[in-house]
Write the structure tokens for this entry.
Amino acid sequence: MNETNKRKFPSWPQFGEEEKAALMDVYDQNRLAFSNAKDWQTKGTARISLEEEFARFHDCKFGIAVTSGTAALMVALRAVGVEKGDEVIVQSYMCIADTEAIIQAGAVPVFCDIDPANCGLNLESVEACITAKTKAIIAIHFGGYMIDMDRLSAIAEKHNVKIVEDASLATGSVWNGRKVGSSSLITIFSFGTDKLLTVGEGGIVITNDAALADKCQSLRNSGNYARIDDSLAENRALAEFTDIEQIGWNFRMPEAPAALGLVGLHKLPLQIQKRHENGRYLDQKLSAIEGLQPLVCSESQTLQSQGLYIFKINEKLFGCDKESFIKRMNAEGIPALYGYHNPIYKYSVFRKENAYKHIFHKYAEAACSQCVWFSHSILLGSKDDMDAIAAAARKIKCEIGGCK
Ligand SMILES: Cc1ncc(COP(=O)(O)O)c(C=O)c1O
């Protein structure tokens, strides 16, 4: 065994004594969840603190914590008015969650291609997908590599289409001095096990729009009336059980995950800074190797929280394909990941439908065969760890005869 494959990269999640104490506090106070009108606005609950602090961390006014990122998407899509028969645009190089949320809203997912530079929305492809039925676009900052929301917003405004921002992989990222989500209508985050802020399973919607926040509160709370505005506090108990204005879900986040989320949120700024710095360092190291090309972190993005670190392998220039590269990296003790094998439209559930049978997205297909991923926890390692990743890639290139 050589030096690299003895190396221990940081694992995830990194729970310790603080998380244990937060969970014990929930247990000691015998408060697992809040569900009735008086309780769900009780100040001092972990869920409400998480909602307030997470929203504030993103320079937003309101947060609505839910049980998963998918639940957050379902709430956000309904809140912006997506209904049966509407079309919603989503990129095809992506996990299935966003597409499922669209379908659960009764709408039709319309797949668009990605931008090869950052694996986010390809704006030309977005415009080509817009029809009279388009109600919304889901804007994903894939791997945390932020897309230009100003350009996307201009397109959305021109066509009178809403944007739901999915920043699940970009928590705390900054673009031209603005926190992700701070200038958007509505933004969602996943707090799943592998996410930058994890509570096990969970998610949140943030917005600056009070009416939209109210609607989200109600949707995640089985359609119950649930105002954020404290001046209505006295009416709340009365309002409970008196009326349901819309059909929602029980997506209420319980106290234990919220308590974990609060601890994680306090640790986040230092982690994000470290990931950003290691990410840019690794960019330099890997781009110096012929045939490897990191995704582009835009100059406008001053903080990249790196929900994933991604680089591309060019089979011809590097000398081997992605699959054998990953196997060799893993044998060197470097936990490189394959990522998606196929764009979403190739899954059998969509192949059956005519509308999806003939789609071919050249950039999404290329990403499947070229993009290599690292979990964000790898970027919590030392500079020496980053050097070891680059050294292993260089070693592989030499072994297959590609060294100059
Ligand atoms: C960008 C993005 N959005 C949404 C989701 C769905 O989140 P969850 O798994 O919490 O439902 C994920 C999950 O991997 C994701 O990566």
Notes: Residues 68-70, 95, 97-98, 140, 166, 168-169, 190, 192, 203 surround pyridoxal-5'-phosphate (CB under 6 Å). The chain has two domains: 17-263, 268-399. Residues 17-263 form a domain with the Aspartate Aminotransferase; domain 2 fold (CATH 3.40.640.10). The first helix runs from residue 17 to 28.
